[in-house]
Amino acid sequence: MTTSKKVAIGVDVGGTNTAIGVVDKDGNVMIKDNIATATHGDFAKFIADLSDAIKQLIKSAKMINEDIEIVGIGIGAPNGNYYNGTIEYAPNLSFRGVLHFVELLKSHFPEVPAIALTNDANAAAIGEMIYGGARGMKNFVMYTLGTGVGSGVVVNGDLVYGHDGFAGECGHTTLIPGGRLCGCGSLGHLEAYCSAPGMKRTAFELMVQYNAVDSMLANKSFLELDSKMIYDAAKAGDKVANMVFEKTGQWLGQGLADTVHHLSPEAIFLFGGPTAAGDLIFRPTKESMETHLLPIFKNKIKILPSQLKPGDAAIVGASALAWKEIEK
Amino acid sequence: MTTSKKVAIGVDVGGTNTAIGVVDKDGNVMIKDNIATATHGDFAKFIADLSDAIKQLIKSAKMINEDIEIVGIGIGAPNGNYYNGTIEYAPNLSFRGVLHFVELLKSHFPEVPAIALTNDANAAAIGEMIYGGARGMKNFVMYTLGTGVGSGVVVNGDLVYGHDGFAGECGHTTLIPGGRLCGCGSLGHLEAYCSAPGMKRTAFELMVQYNAVDSMLANKSFLELDSKMIYDAAKAGDKVANMVFEKTGQWLGQGLADTVHHLSPEAIFLFGGPTAAGDLIFRPTKESMETHLLPIFKNKIKILPSQLKPGDAAIVGASALAWKEIEK
User: Fold this and answer.
1) Residue B254's closest chain A neighbor by CA?
2) Which residues, 6+ apart, have CB-to-CB distance to B113 below 8 Å?
3) Contact by Cβ (8 Å): A16, A55
4) Does domain B5-132+311-327 have CATH number 3.30.1050.10?
5) Three-state DSSP class for residue A3
6) Which residues of chain A does CATH 3.30.420.40 include?
7) In 3D, which of B243, B87, B259, B241 has the Cα closest to residue B171?
8) ipTM of this predicted structure
9) A263: which chain B residues are within 8 Å (Cβ-Cβ)?
10) Contact at 8 Å (CB) between B22 and B33?
């Protein structure tokens, strides 16, 4: 015999695929699936197909435990606006303009108590707060390092959405005035230095600077080189690769210090591929942050690895938004 | 016949003097006074004298309106910690270490319902929210430009104190890595560029760069030159002086954009001497902020002059903290 169990649906909208999962209160993914995002030209059709996939997934979950109860659906999406439930002008999606995601999805799930949407990094921050290393923390910030750099800010136990729903874009603070071109079109943003592609750019900058033809990275093209190769080379003792982590940490630490001076969080969590390098990235980041801090903040703010499982983090983070909603 | 009237006491602790005022709910100062801070070597003695001065001021206020009721005492002080009611290691005060300000003051005023302390810029932000241009705003940030650059952050209608009580030190975010020495000992902080002394440094930097012996500022020593002289010269058409405002605005706009990327406020308020220059400083600041913003934030965030009266702002801001306390 099965027992009744509350679960939330997490939806992670990506440019190519949209992942869906049924997640329990402890952050365990019971079952998951995904559908194509990119091939849907029509947004209403996409939402209809997504709804069908969610209903199918719930049916399958009920085969595992017939007494599950859906408390809500949480969605993480690029440029997701929590206040309006919309996705607004997301550069990486094929749909254009302002998409009324929550409103449309609600028409397919009138019986579900809570449906809410935010951007992916905000969802990750809520995931960390509900399931991860930030449980019990009232003030923390999450940085997600990947193709871009996202962030989510938590103050007094609540995610900060700002006046328009878009707060927490710390990846677009200026590190180096007039510096590298960022994906957003501005110059010198943190994302252009501390994302995975930013690390690739740093590797080439260093090879140029030192004419490092003997680096293990010297036989890779600009298109080919990725942050995993830099990590492997660093572990094997390559000087350039080690300097990439050193410089990335210096830049990231400068950015984290700016965040501390705004918010004085208890901890800053780092999430994403580059954080797998552990001390290689955490040590220089911490050192640089401390150097940039006012005395009153020194040796007080923790820099911690996210406790979310990399593979499921996006779904799990999104589902946490549903749990957070029903807490209210 | 007089009518009953609720008032708050505002206390502004400065390195030289401490100002005290009786302030009504509309932010009007009924009566004010001040005592020396610097000459008190002993902190308990200072608090005793401050308490006497407050009691005397209340007595005088009662001569104007015998039915006033004291709702609380709000204190603005450098390195003031809201959570503990302490001043911690303030570099500009003659008292050392951690000062238990609120605890000591409470022993002199056991009957006053609320006594609270925060730093001066946070007090100014609360003043703006209770009496000034931020009435009705839930998300805004205040920058105070003076000898230093302070800031106060408001999210969801509450001041952000962070996990330790010290949030809102935006003047110490890094603008120019490895740049000018800041008063705090770090390099390249916003305060070293956008404070009044920062503008003086910029004037000399520009005279050096352009060998501007014909500038109206060229006959002033590094010690002599102040931001008021730069303002007067700019109004009289001096090129260097005008460039100082242009550059200060560019730097400040970069910093404000970083703040927007963290918090997405409805507005950022500017307070302090340099803001008297109006468009000379507001225009380049706005232009630079917009240049540095992500598209989703462009043309949405207001930069506004503080509505607090310059002379009384510190007392009035501090008193607002008392009003905010009794709202809870």
Assistant:
1) A174
2) B71, B72, B326
3) no
4) no
5) coil
6) 5-132+311-327, 140-305
7) B259
8) 0.92
9) 153, 160, 162, 167, 262
10) no
- Residue B163 in tokens: 């996990």
Query: Using CA atoms, how far apart are residues B31 and B68, in angstroms rounded to an integer?
Result: 12
The β-bridge relationship of strands B158-159 and B267-271 is unpaired
Closest CA–CA distance from residue B180 to any residue of chain A (Å): 13
* Tokens 């501090």, residue located: B318
Q: Does A162 contact B254 at a Cβ distance shorter than 8 Å?
A: no
Put simply, the answer to whether B261 touches A165 (Cβ < 8 Å) is no
Query: Chain A contacts of B263, Cβ < 8 Å?
Result: 153, 160, 162, 167, 262
Judge: A168–B262 Cβ closer than 8 Å, yes or no. yes
Which residue among B171, B184, B266 sits closest to A163, beta carbon to beta carbon? Answer: B266
- Interface contact flag, A261 B184, Cβ < 8 Å: no
Neighbours of B107 (CB within 10 A): 12
Minimal CA–CA distance to B118: which of B134, B96, B142?
B142
CB contact at 8 A, B149 and B44: no
The DSSP code for B182 is P
Element (H, E) at B31: strand B29-36
Distance CA B46, CA B35 (A): 9
Say which CATH topology domain B140-305 has.
Nucleotidyltransferase; domain 5 (3.30.420)
Angle subtended at Cα A138 by Cα A134 and Cα A144, rounded to the nearest 5 degrees? 45
Specify which residues A99 forms β-bridges with. A87
Amino acid at B160: V
C-alpha distance from B18 to closest chain A C-alpha (Å) = 23
Q: How many CB pairs under 8 A join A and B?
A: 141
Backbone torsion region of residue A46, taken as left when φ is above 0, otherwise alpha when ψ lies between -120 and 50, otherwise beta: alpha
DSSP secondary-structure letter at B265? -
Chain B residues whose CB is inside 8 A of the A172 CB are 261, 293-294
Distance from CA of B90 to the nearest CA of A (A): 10
Whole-number Å distance between alpha carbons of A17 and A40: 10
Q: Would you give per-residue pLDDT tens digits along chain B (328 residues)?
A: 456 899 999 999 988 899 999 999 999 999 999 999 978 778 999 999 999 999 999 999 999 988 999 999 999 998 899 999 999 888 778 888 899 999 999 999 999 999 999 999 999 999 999 999 999 999 999 999 999 999 999 999 999 999 999 999 999 999 999 999 999 999 999 999 999 999 999 999 999 999 999 999 999 999 999 999 999 999 999 999 999 999 999 999 999 999 999 999 999 999 998 999 999 999 999 999 999 999 999 999 999 999 998 788 889 999 999 999 988 7
Give A150's DSSP letter: E
Q: What is the pTM of this model?
A: 0.93
Q: How far is the first Cα of chain B from the last one, in angstroms, to the nearest whole number?
A: 32
| Helical ranges in A218-312 per DSSP H | 227-235, 239-263, 279-292
d(C-alpha B61, C-alpha B241), whole Å: 45
**Chain A neighbors of B177, CB-CB under 8 A:** 175-176, 254
**CA atoms of B92 and B327, how far apart (whole Å):** 32
Q: How far is A77 from chain B (nearest CA, A)?
A: 15
Q: Are A291 and A255 in contact (CB under 8 A)?
A: no
